[in-house]
Write a structure and sequence with these properties.
- The complex is a heterodimer of chains A (878) and B (423).
- Chain A has 878 residues and is an alpha/beta fold.
- Helices cover 68% and strands 10% of the residues of chain A.
- In chain A, strands 2-4-5-7-6 form a 5-stranded mixed sheet, covered by helices on one side. Chain A has a 5-stranded parallel sheet with strand order 10-9-11-12-13.
- Chain A is elongated and about 235 Å long.
- About 2% of the residues of chain A have low confidence.
- Chain B is an alpha/beta fold.
- A 7-stranded mixed sheet of chain B has the order 11-10-12-13-14-19-20, sandwiched between helices. Chain B has a 6-stranded mixed sheet with strand order 3-4-2-5-6-9.
- Chain B is elongated, with a radius of gyration of 28 Å.
- Chain B starts with 15 loop residues before the first helix and ends with a strand.
- The chains are: A alpha/beta (878), B alpha/beta (423).
- The interface between A and B is medium-sized, with 34 and 28 residues.
Amino acid sequence: MNRIADFWWRLTIPKKLFFSFALLLILLAAIVLTAIISLLFIHQASDRILAVEKEIQTLVWELDRNMLEARNLQKDFLLKYPRIGFSEAKSEYADQVLPHIKKVLEITGRLKSSTADPRVNQIIVDSNINMTLYLSSAERFSETFQQFIELVTSLSLEDSGLESRFSLVSDQLVETIRNNGTKDMQINLAAMQIYEKNYFLTKKRPYMNSAYNEAYKIKTMLKNDTVSLELNDYILSQLDAYEKLADQIMAINSKLNGILNDFDLQIKTVNPISHALVQLVRTEEQNTRQAIASMYLNSVILIGGISFLAVLIAVGIAALLNKSITLKIISLTHVATELANGNYQVPVDIESGDEIGTLASGFGAMRKAVKNKIEELEAEIQNRRTAEMKIIQLNRELEERVKERTEELKSAKEAAEAANEAKSIFLANMSHELRTPLNSILGYAQILKKKEDSDTDSIRGLHIIENSGNHLLTLINDILDIAKIEAGKLELQYSEFMLAGFITQIMDIMHVRAQKKGIKIEYKALNPLPTRVSGDERRLRQIILNLLGNAVKFTDKGTVTLEAEVVNGNQDAGYNESLIRFHVRDTGCGMRDEELNRIFKKFEQAGIKQKQGEGTGLGLSISRQLVDLMGGELVVKSKIGKGTHFWFDILFPVIEEGQRPHDYSMDIIGYKGKKQNLLIIDDNENNRMFLTDLLEPLGFIIISAPNGKEGIQAAKQDIPDLILMDLVMPVMSGYEAVDVLRQIPEFETIPIIAISASVMILKPDELSRFDDFVPKPVSPITILSKLEKFLQLQWEYKNKEIVSEDAGLVFPSLGTLKQLAEICELYNYRALETALLEVEKADSRFIPFVELIRQHAREFEMGEIQSILEKGISRNNI
Amino acid sequence: MDCLKMKYLPIFLQNKINIYIFLAVLFLLSVLTACSEGADAVQCIDPAGCVQIPKGGVVKIGVIQDLSGGASEYGRVQLNALNLVMEERGSRIAGFPVQLVVTDEGCTEAGGKNAAVQIVSDPQIAAVFGTTCSGAAASAAKVLSENDYVMISGSNSAPSLTSVYGEKGDEWYNGYFRTTSNDSYRGTAAAEFALKDMDKKIAATIDDGDSYTAGAAEIFRQEFIAIGGTIALSATIDKGEENMKPVLQRILNSGAELVYMPLFSPEGLAIILEMKELPEFKNIVILTSNTVVSEMNYDIIRRSIDKIYFTRSYEAAGDAFSSLLDSYTNRYGVPGADTLATAYDAVHILFDAIEAVSIKQTDGSLLIPKSGLRTELFSLKNYQGVSGVLSCDQFGDMGVKSNRIMMLSREMSEPVEVYSFTL
């Protein structure tokens, strides 16, 4: 055991596992093998035994049947041959006996062979069934029967048999005595015949002995010389023959009787064997089945036992593995855990010759090494901890500083954002607030200039005031644009426009200015341009006009050229785009390189000093930023004395023909249906008047109020169909008023449209309580479109257009021209600009007209404007 | 193994590996010994084979006697004699218990054959004691001899079973032995007595066709004619026949002065009873055999006829025979027959021979060589039996070679010897 234990101790884990699982596998194989062998054994044994049993059973039945048949035939022969004759009986019965006996012998031999199976043989021995006796009896039956047949043949064979011969002798004797004998002889002969017959019937010798005695009497009579000597001798010889044959017959009959007795004895011997065999086979079949069942049960028990043993061994192996591997691993794990928890005093008490032992030794060494290392590390850590404390302190100080700086930056950012917001608001407010008085200043400066009583100095002063005011207005507009761009609140307004018409309008405007300076201005399409594109037409015009304006401004002689070309087109997938490059070239004074770097900066101007004062210095900056917004880049090249070349690329979606938008080119002269009440709430009387003048001629009933409070009262008195409401108003703002109105059931569904110039400071949530919003300056077409939308109006148009033949201008309607003339009379540039915007939006064909007016307005050339307007009115009246 | 006192072990066992080898060899030897336990220690070399009786087995002795036929009286005597011997020998042969396998031959040839067939079907039967009737013996002896069995009879007397006047009998088989006297001597004695002592020149014979009766009648006829007599009639009756008048009338018709009828009791007594009705038979000498005139028939015979002569093969005498008769009577309540002594001697001779040839095996089993047993019986010389001094001749005859004629008359209580013949 110690050797085994030592052997096991030294095994490696893989070998331990190998041995263990090999043992388990062997056990498993043994179980399976045992089960298979047992089942096969049972199967084979059952088959074999049952087959043997079956064979024996069949043989026994066959044996019994043949034996019985042989005996029956033998009996039939015995009974029937005296009646039907020997030959027939022999062929019909006796000859059939021997084949059966032969069969019996053959079967008995096979039976003996079958019962040679030790187990079956023992059963037969145990059951006292004598197969040898059966076989011997069968053989003896055969022999005896053959003897019997021989005897019967000698006795009964027709003609040559003893009985035939005897019958012949007897008949001759009878005939002789009947014919020649005395009466007494005949009487004795008759008696002899009776005894004879009795004998043949009963086979009892006394009858024949009696016959002999009668024969003796006849012989005695013959001795008395009753017949002739010859006859006497003949009868005596016949009687002797008679007796001799009778003796032979009786002797054979005795033998036959003995054989019959023999048959009876044989039957007595064989029958019990036959019956016992049959019974044995039946019993044995049952026993065999029981034995097989028992064998099966034993096999099951055996397999169960082996399985149980295997389970025990498996448990033993598991316990052994548990003890030699698992428990050691657990101990090792415990040690590892303790080590992990810092307990380096934990002992490593694991002894094994396998890997675990090696591992345990390693653990021990590692424990010691780790312990030393940790002590070193602890000392190191202590040092580092001290240093770390210092670092932490420094970090804290740094964090404090960063925090302070962050707070400062945040404050600064917030301040900057607030300042920026304030700046934007300020700029918006200021632009709004500055424009209003500036409109008045400019307007009244023009009114005063037209007064006849004004002296020259006054007119000069008014002219200065007017020019300064216009400059200031332009400056304010540019500043407002810059402010919007910088605040990110400038949104491009995309619309579709005819590119050729657009350029024609621009060229029309610039023609006037170029003519004034005596220079040539021209337009070149470098390749075919798309007919209609989508883009912010107004801002594009602003850019090109700015560039052309500068070019005209800084060119004293030569030519200013506008060129346009399609740089790249994209017509894939049905989406049509064109990258169009615009060039503005002049033959002016040109710029130096350092000037080129400054020209796009705000309030920077380049070029000839004398001309720098003209303009705000914001134009190129605005243009560049607008080009940027449109996705392009404004580029400049210039050479002193040669001129300057600006160009930029803009990608335009190309609009196919037949997709033209709603056309407002026709003048609206009214609307169909009932009269609509409109309430206009605006603190600015001009605005109220503008809207009243715009809408009343179209058939609207206008009610107006200067603030929200009065507006509410007016609304309550006469409930309007729609309310146009300014937002920034004294007493009650538009926001407050709409809140009040919405709480009144009657006004819950009435459309309220906000109108405000404070575009930059509007917030979406503030506008949500309104149905819509219209920015100031109000565009008539915008207002009309809103009314059409909310009041479901159907406009009535006056389809008449006035085209300036001279300048190719298309003039708006007569009403619009008169309205513009009235505004010009008041010198209300703001109103003029507002009106121009409306005209511009109403139909793109009016744009050249609008731009011409606007150009003159910028130059404060009110006279020019009025001249154009008069021309238009006169054309309209024709 | 550490606990073993190594120093007390042999040197070669003081090494552990050697101990394991030693134990393994011991185990193998024990297994081999166990496996060979059932093997024969001595091989049977007898050409006819051996009867092997396992340890604890029994020696089977076949018995073929007439238990239901015409000689059943004698058959029972044979069986009783066997049982007496068994009792004397403690029912053991060679230390093994004896088991008797008893069959009935019915005093017929068929019965004998049938019984013999039954016997030979059991290979465990060592030898056979039988038969009662010679007719049965002839058929049985054939079957038994052919199967290397031996049979010894204390009753058969038919010459054909052994020899007729020193010549092999027609029904002789080499496995057959008998202690009774050969009927050749009976027929010779009867013929000489009839012609010489009784001066009867004309004789008739009656037999029943059985070997014994037919054989004895034939010997008589031959001897009687040979010494100058005439056989007027040779009649045969059937076994079991009751109507004897016709045959008796034939005898009367034949003019016979003497009737020799070596029959068995049933038929013999029937004839004697019929003779009573025929006064003509008062003048005819009736000579029969001891199978008819047995002690139990004395009274019937005395009442039927005035005088009768019968043959008896020997006169068993002496203390041994008296003792045997006493034992028999005490044991079975009836007097023993003439064949008691020969039966008694036959059983002893057979048992002695078996014991003489049997080989007791080391495993306790017993081998009985078959031809060895036959040779042993043939070698019998001067056996001091109850029936006389017996020796076996080459044909199996062991009996005393002498015969006597006895006479029983109405006045006699016991028959008296009137003629004696010894070869």
